[in-house]
């Protein structure tokens, strides 16, 4: 019998990701993003989250957004 390991999903991950993707989308839909802020807040209160933090980046993957070239 094989053991499989799964990484637990961070608290309120879906709500956080949805909000970040909303803010990054073009065209920006402020009303939709505000609704997602409310959904994230509701999750935070329900799960009693005190503080968020980002995981340390590993040496094999990059989590940084690509840097854009400065305009001449």
UniProtKB/TrEMBL annotation:
Q: Which InterPro entries match?
A: Cys_alpha_HP_mot_SF
* SUPFAM superfamilies recorded: Cysteine alpha-hairpin motif
Source domain of life is: Eukaryota
Output this protein's name.
CHCH domain-containing protein
Q: What is the source species?
A: Miscanthus lutarioriparius
Taxonomic lineage is: Eukaryota, Viridiplantae, Streptophyta, Embryophyta, Tracheophyta
